[in-house]
Amino acid sequence: MALSLLPALLSGCASLNRHHEALLVLGDLSAGREDSRLKRRTEPPRREGIEYARQGRDYRADVYHPPEPRRGSLILVHGFTEQGRRDPRLVALARTLGRVGFTVMVPELDGLRDYSISTREVAAIVDAIHHATRAGSEAPTRTAVAAVSFAVGPALIAAMDEEVAPAVSFVVAVGGYYDMTDLLRYITTGEDRGSAGQQAPPPQREARWAVLLSQLHWLEDAQDRTLLETIARRRLADPQAPVADEVGRLGASGRALLELVTNEDPRRVEALIDRLPAALARELEALDPSRQALDRLQARLVLIHGPQDPMIPISHSRRLRDALPQGQARLFETEALQHVAVSTDWRDGWGLWRALVHVLALSEENGEGG
Question: Which domain of life is it from (predicted)?
Answer without folding.
Answer: Bacteria
